[in-house]
């Protein structure tokens, strides 16, 4: 089981950096395989089950049926959250211990990686394999806070102390203000719940603070490495970063007020930023972000009040329920419950200033910790399989549901593989195979605008090189299909404008000047400061 858990976490880490669907699928499959063994006991339905599964279902439905900008992330991100919750809930004590050791071992590798980055490598801020230090800090906190909480609750061992110091050093190496806020919240929650469970000792808190102090000393010492070339962020840079976040907050709030009930759709803030770049001067004409840097505000904008209520239930309901139930737990259950709820509280606070609920590995870990907490709070009971589960009709229905879900999820993987191979064949000059595979990607996943755009670029280049009318027609059709799939993305619209302008003599029915002006005005409304839109507007 440990290799499967490691593969699931490592793939989720890779998915948190790469924009590919394949790592998400590998992580989900490995996690499902790790929890495929039949549990020896079950649990009654708790308040945390609808909180976790309801939020995941709401995101998936919005991304697939409501949002104008479909993305496979809207299926896989909630899937990782739900799988983490279900699998952790099914594990027995031995399975949970193995999974926890595996996760902390991966965290130790990430912590060491970050220390190498700020030491010998000379980076200003550690981020390991992640795209931003904030993401790196969020992942480390989900592993560090449980370690600290176990120490505060009286379960400190030499190995726990050593790993805690290493994770703390990696966290301080990230120099993430959001990460520090989450750390303080997690330690505070661990202290409160330990007092609530009558397990608090000042000596234990002092030991946890000593782990943090040791990590800070190590990170500070490595920052003085002789080969350092990149300076640490200045106070001016930090102030500018805070100002830019306030601009993002204001933009997101304005976008929600335009659609206060349904929201703008899951993961559509990037398009909101493109339309309102004039309000976010700190991002200029080209800097991009998908995130508001406040998950609650972004959820309100994208999913509406119902989505915000679901996220609030997911983030704050666990602490409220645990506060009531922790004192009544058995002594051997309390440390694990305190560790889990402290980490959940830390990420809930981190979401106020960053975007951990949009990061695959963070969602997987959060769901798993939620499952651990739910498992500790609900008394296990013997759960013999009902008679109806052995009937052929039930087995057939279950197999059908699994196959349908697999086809929906693996469709994105197949489309991505086809598009990647088609782009490689195009780069190698094999136009026939490139056309076939790029077309296959469009047919497999027609709702994803990117595959239409890839095909449009390919046929556009073919038309420019060969002068064939068929190539120009296919380019125009691909760009038009891409814009129809995602009317918020300006790239396909700009591509269609360019084809009709540059290849007029090749098209049977080229757009007239009035239509081109309308298209350019539409592109300007979607991305007024985009350089390509500006060039078309100038022409």
Please provide a written account of the structure.
48% of the residues are buried. The mean pLDDT is 88. The chain has a two-stranded antiparallel ribbon. It has two domains: 303 residues, no CATH class; 144 residues, Tetratricopeptide repeat domain (Serine Threonine Protein Phosphatase 5, Tetratricopeptide repeat). The chain is mostly helical and 539 residues long.
C-alpha end-to-end distance: 61 Å
Average pLDDT rating: 88
Number of domains: 2
Could you say which overall geometry the principal axes of the C-alpha atoms support?
globular
Order of helices and strands: HHEHHHHHHHHHHHHEHHHHHHH
Percentage of residues assigned to helices? over 70%
- Strand residues, percent: under 5%
Class by SSE composition = mainly alpha
Largest sheet: 2 strands, antiparallel
Number of helices: 21
E-strand count: 2
Radius of gyration: 25 Å
Which regions contain 5 or more consecutive residues with pLDDT less than 50?
none
Strand order of the largest sheet: 1-2
Q: What labels would you give this structure?
A:
single chain; 539 residues; mainly alpha; Serine Threonine Protein Phosphatase 5, Tetratricopeptide repeat; 2 domains; two-stranded antiparallel ribbon; 21 helices; 2 strands
Question: What can be said about this structure in brief?
Answer:
With 539 residues, this protein is an all-alpha fold. The protein has helices spanning 2-17, 22-34, 48-66, 73-90, 93-118, 133-152, 158-174, 177-196, 202-223, 235-258, 269-275, 295-325, 334-350, 360-377, 392-427, 431-444, 449-466, 469-485, 490-502, 513-526, 531-538; strands at residues 41-42, 381-382.
């Amino acid at each position: 089981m440990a290799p499967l858990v490691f593969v699931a976490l490592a793939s989720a880490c890779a998915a948190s950096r790469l924009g590919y669907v394949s790592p998400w699928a590998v992580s989900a499959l490995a996690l499902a395989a790790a929890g495929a063994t039949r549990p020896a006991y079950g649990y009654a339905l708790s308040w945390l089950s609808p909180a976790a599964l309801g939020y995941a279902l709401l995101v998936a439905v919005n991304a697939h049926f409501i949002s104008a900008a479909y993305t496979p992330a809207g299926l896989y991100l909630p899937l990782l959250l739900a799988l983490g919750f279900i699998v952790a809930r099914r594990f027995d004590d031995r399975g949970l211990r193995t999974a926890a050791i595996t996760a902390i071992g991966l965290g130790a590798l990430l912590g060491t990686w970050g220390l190498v980055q700020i030491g010998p490598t000379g980076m200003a801020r550690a981020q390991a394999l992640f795209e931003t230090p904030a993401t790196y800090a969020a992942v480390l906190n989900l592993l560090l806070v449980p370690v600290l909480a176990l120490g505060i609750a009286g379960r400190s061992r030499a190995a726990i102390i050593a790993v805690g110091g290493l994770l703390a050093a990696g966290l301080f190496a990230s120099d993430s203000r959001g990460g520090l806020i989450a750390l303080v919240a997690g330690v505070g929650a661990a202290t409160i719940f330990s007092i609530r469970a009558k397990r608090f000792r000042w000596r234990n808190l002092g030991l946890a603070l000593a782990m943090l102090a040791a990590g800070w000393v190590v990170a500070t010492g490595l920052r003085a490495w002789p080969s350092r070339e990149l300076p640490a962020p200045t106070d001016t840079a930090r102030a500018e970063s805070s100002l830019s976040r306030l601009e993002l907050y204001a933009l997101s709030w304005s976008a929600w007020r335009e659609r206060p009930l349904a929201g703008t759709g899951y993961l559509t803030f990037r398009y909101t930023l493109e339309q309102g770049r004039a309000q976010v001067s700190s991002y200029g004409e080209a800097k991009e972000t998908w995130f508001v840097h406040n998950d609650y505000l972004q959820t309100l904008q994208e999913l509406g009040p119902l989505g915000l209520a679901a996220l609030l239930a997911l983030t704050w309901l666990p602490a409220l329920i645990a506060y009531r139930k922790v004192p009544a737990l058995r002594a051997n259950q309390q440390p694990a419950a305190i560790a889990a709820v402290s980490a959940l509280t830390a990420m809930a606070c981190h979401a106020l200033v960053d975007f951990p609920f949009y990061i695959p590995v963070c969602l997987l870990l959060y769901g798993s910790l939620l499952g651990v907490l739910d498992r500790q709070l609900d008394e296990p009971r013997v759960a013999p399989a009902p008679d109806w589960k052995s009937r052929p009709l039930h087995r057939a229905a279950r197999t059908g549901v699994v196959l349908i879900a697999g086809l929906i999820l693996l469709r994105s993987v197949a489309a991505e593989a086809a598009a990647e191979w088609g782009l490689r064949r195009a780069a190698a000059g094999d136009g026939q195979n490139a056309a076939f595979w790029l077309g296959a990607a469009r047919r497999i996943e027609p709702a994803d605008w990117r595959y239409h755009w890839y095909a449009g670029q390919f046929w556009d280049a073919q038309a420019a090189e060969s002068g064939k009318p068929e190539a120009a027609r296919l380019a125009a059709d691909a760009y038009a299909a891409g814009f129809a799939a995602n009317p918020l993305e300006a790239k396909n619209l700009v591509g269609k404008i360019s084809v009709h302008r540059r290849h007029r003599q090749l098209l049977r029915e080229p757009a007239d000047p009035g239509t081109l002006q309308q298209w350019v005005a539409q592109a300007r409304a979607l991305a007024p400061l985009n350089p390509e839109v500006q060039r078309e507007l100038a022409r």
